[in-house]
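Tutorial, part two.
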Amino acid sequence: MNLKDPQRPGVDALISIADGMSVSIDWLVGRGDDATRGEFSKEDYAVFCQSAILHVLIRVMDAVKKHPDTAIDAENGRIQGYELHEIAAVGMLDFMAIVDRQSGHPNRPKDYFKRSYATMSRWVEGDLKAFVKWDK
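Running the prediction step on this input gives:
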């Protein structure tokens, strides 16, 4: 770096260096604060989202089991006293925690989330088609 007129690496070299360091090229060349390199695909994020929604639904089901008559206040848009936007925020925090836990996870099997996404797709395309349209 202290050389006079140093040669700059080519794009292929930058990609290799960024991948090796698990950072973005923008971060590598000092053009961004984000050190991530887009480790996940759309299918991965779909699985993470499904997991976060499942966590929220489990909490709702637990509340209904414990207090069947008062857990859901549909008239005022509350579940166990919480407004819907508060519950959505909990879901989003779950989602962010899931992504954070999976980032760089060394024991994650290859194509794990791709397989999970394929399984969910089969559920929706199969028996759950009626469920997807339940409110219509």
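Residues 42-66 form the longest helix (25 residues). In part three we will examine how such features are distributed along the chain.
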